Amino acid sequence: MGKIRALDPSVVNKIAAGEIIISPVNALKEILENSIDAGATMLEILVRDGGIKLLQVSDNGCGIQLDDLPLLCERFATSKLTNFQDLENIATYGFRGEALASISHIARLSVTTKTNDEQCAYKVSYNEGKIVDKPKPVAGKNGTSIHVEDLFYNIPSRLRALKTPNEEFTRILDVVGRYGIHSKGIGFSCKKFGDSSYSITLKPDFTTIDRIRSIYGNNVATSIIGFEMDSNENLGLTKVSGYISTSNLNNKKSVQPIFFINDRLVTCDPLRRAIYNTYTNYLPKGTRPFIYLSINISPPSVDVNVHPTKREVRFLHQDEIIDEITTSINDQLSKLDTTRTFNRGVMMSKPLTDNSSTKYSQAATPTTTHPMNSSQTSQRRYENKLVRVDSSQAKITSFLKSSQYNSAEYISASQHIGKQSNTASDNNKDKATPIDLNDDVNITRSQSLQDESQSNTYSMLSKERVTVNLTSIESLRNQVDMSAHKELTEIFAGSNYIGIVDYYKRLLTIQFDLKLFLVDYGAICNELFYQIGLTDFANFGTIQLQTQDTEQLSIRNILKTLNLAETKIDEISSQLVEMKEMLWEYFSIEIIENESHVAFLKTIPLLLKGYTPSLSKLPLFIYRLGTIVNWNSEQECLDGILKQIALFYIPEIIMEVSSSSESPKGEKHSNTENAHKKEELSEKIEHVIYPCLKRRFLAPSSIVDDVIEIANLPGLYKVFERC
């Protein structure tokens, strides 16, 4: 009797599955490719124990037809091709019909899917390629969710050969990051089971540079250039594009090159070695480049069916194509190799006393920790030194806010003192956000300007930006440059807003790196609005003031609320009327006179769309303009007006009152009203002022004492032994 026997089909299937699914990352790669083939624009990945206990991928693609579910996990059942010749022009990731079949033989697999035509989703489980039960109708959204549990539960030897869960999760992040960089228009999110934050978050509208920055960090993103190469029909090379690092990249740990050939993620060792050899002429010894290339070759010249995991392909004229690519890279690098930047380490002392200057026209960019940076994954991360938040990621609450916080270019509107609209000069958007307002408020000695519960209605102005060449303004801007504190500027640029802790003392908290800071937001806002005034000088928007009784807006009536002498009021009014043309041209402060030569305040400047200064401070603002500003010196005059505008824009103090407390006027203050003021101010600071501060604020050395470190993570661990 012969010794050769046919293997049992279950054994054959397990052997084949072991060739295709070597580790959790291979299963993820196959599922990701199926989701992309299905036209998904958002993929959500959940991982537990490195994908061994749980690997879940949900997408919003076209879904799977109900009639196709019985064949979903059958080996060699596919919708991608019908005959062998189709491989020559295959344009999808999948084509063999083995991925889900292999997973079902070595794991517990369930699928929930819904097409646009179905009224509900269907859930079904698979075992060894066969459907277990009939599809069950369940609630679900369009798309497919693949649920893989207990990977390799029936192959103990393979399970023992896997790396630690953390190492497997790192490999999963690497693959998600590579597909995320290449897949334009598709969003990705990936996190560990039980974690509150995502390890990777890529929005569908992210550019390739944004994706590289999110995955590999700002150090890589700022040291790369776009790369494109002409086609070569003789070699079947249709297009080569991507991003390559310059000689300024300082990255001791190598990031494996990202190669996509005909949109397939592959490894190509000959190409990698050739590119590394090219970079030896441009990078210091021991430094590796960052390479992302998308190579399109005529499909008949490419054989995609040469490796079980599809990680390799073969293509004609390989040596010639590699030579073309490396020559083009060398040509581009040689044009840029005129200067080189080397970073040197500097010990950051705890006191913020370094007065290093920062360029006024540029915002500082913080260095952040990214999960995919290969220079960090090999190092052990201690919990007491782990930064758990990313300043570049938005909070979930930001998606609940109105679009009123968006910017617009030259916007104008009307405001009843109680009915208000604003104008802003911000070049980011071209839409205005209308908001209604109802309360009318009178200006009298007993009742100053109020602006509770105000909202804004914006409209566009056809106004071109004015270029200012005044020597005095340039001098003031240079002073800001010279006084900038580099270390403190980087803290604000890379910080995370925590919240307000004291509305009376105007204190809030922020987190930067491992440290928690207490900040005097009154002092910070004063400097911020002064810098905005310098930057947008002569290009402010306007807040138009209107009331039913126009007499309320006369300079005289506004100043009467301060109990000033009549002679002083006349002096201030005359001074402002005399300088009204300059105030309007440079500061958008419009003062008009009626037939009786009575001066009225018509507009005040708008520095930041979405934020209106407290109108209760308007009388003091007018008074200080007329008495403190030195009108005889150009530079001192302009500087003084900008400082008064900045003071006017500082958020007002909110007193702590109880339900029974009374004001000097005998009016009872409501806890509800006070809480509303706090809530409104908190939203304005978090969603309007602080984002602007992170983008454009140059912290001066004068505010070092207004930023105090109150805690740090290593110190808290020493006390509490946990976070």
UniProtKB/TrEMBL annotation:
<dbReference type="InterPro" id="IPR020568">
    <property type="entry name" value="Ribosomal_Su5_D2-typ_SF"/>
</dbReference>
<feature type="region of interest" description="Disordered">
    <location>
        <begin position="660"/>
        <end position="679"/>
    </location>
</feature>
<dbReference type="GO" id="GO:0005524">
    <property type="term" value="F:ATP binding"/>
</dbReference>
<dbReference type="GO" id="GO:0016887">
    <property type="term" value="F:ATP hydrolysis activity"/>
</dbReference>
<feature type="region of interest" description="Disordered">
    <location>
        <begin position="348"/>
        <end position="380"/>
    </location>
</feature>
<dbReference type="GO" id="GO:0000710">
    <property type="term" value="P:meiotic mismatch repair"/>
</dbReference>
<feature type="coiled-coil region">
    <location>
        <begin position="555"/>
        <end position="582"/>
    </location>
</feature>
<dbReference type="InterPro" id="IPR038973">
    <property type="entry name" value="MutL/Mlh/Pms-like"/>
</dbReference>
<dbReference type="InterPro" id="IPR002099">
    <property type="entry name" value="MutL/Mlh/PMS"/>
</dbReference>
<keyword id="KW-0175">Coiled coil</keyword>
<dbReference type="InterPro" id="IPR014721">
    <property type="entry name" value="Ribsml_uS5_D2-typ_fold_subgr"/>
</dbReference>
<keyword id="KW-0234">DNA repair</keyword>
<dbReference type="InterPro" id="IPR013507">
    <property type="entry name" value="DNA_mismatch_S5_2-like"/>
</dbReference>
<keyword id="KW-0227">DNA damage</keyword>
<dbReference type="InterPro" id="IPR032189">
    <property type="entry name" value="Mlh1_C"/>
</dbReference>
<dbReference type="InterPro" id="IPR014762">
    <property type="entry name" value="DNA_mismatch_repair_CS"/>
</dbReference>
<keyword id="KW-0539">Nucleus</keyword>
<feature type="region of interest" description="Disordered">
    <location>
        <begin position="416"/>
        <end position="436"/>
    </location>
</feature>
<dbReference type="Pfam" id="PF16413">
    <property type="entry name" value="Mlh1_C"/>
</dbReference>
<dbReference type="InterPro" id="IPR036890">
    <property type="entry name" value="HATPase_C_sf"/>
</dbReference>
<dbReference type="GO" id="GO:0097587">
    <property type="term" value="C:MutLgamma complex"/>
</dbReference>
<protein>
    <submittedName>
        <fullName>DNA mismatch repair protein MLH1</fullName>
    </submittedName>
</protein>
<dbReference type="GO" id="GO:0030983">
    <property type="term" value="F:mismatched DNA binding"/>
</dbReference>
<dbReference type="GO" id="GO:0032389">
    <property type="term" value="C:MutLalpha complex"/>
</dbReference>
<dbReference type="Pfam" id="PF13589">
    <property type="entry name" value="HATPase_c_3"/>
</dbReference>
<feature type="compositionally biased region" description="Basic and acidic residues">
    <location>
        <begin position="664"/>
        <end position="679"/>
    </location>
</feature>
<dbReference type="GO" id="GO:0140664">
    <property type="term" value="F:ATP-dependent DNA damage sensor activity"/>
</dbReference>
<dbReference type="GO" id="GO:0007131">
    <property type="term" value="P:reciprocal meiotic recombination"/>
</dbReference>
<feature type="compositionally biased region" description="Polar residues">
    <location>
        <begin position="352"/>
        <end position="379"/>
    </location>
</feature>
<dbReference type="GO" id="GO:0000713">
    <property type="term" value="P:meiotic heteroduplex formation"/>
</dbReference>
<dbReference type="Pfam" id="PF01119">
    <property type="entry name" value="DNA_mis_repair"/>
</dbReference>
<feature type="domain" description="DNA mismatch repair protein S5">
    <location>
        <begin position="212"/>
        <end position="334"/>
    </location>
</feature>
<dbReference type="GO" id="GO:0032390">
    <property type="term" value="C:MutLbeta complex"/>
</dbReference>
<feature type="compositionally biased region" description="Polar residues">
    <location>
        <begin position="416"/>
        <end position="426"/>
    </location>
</feature>
<comment type="similarity">
    <text>Belongs to the DNA mismatch repair MutL/HexB family.</text>
</comment>
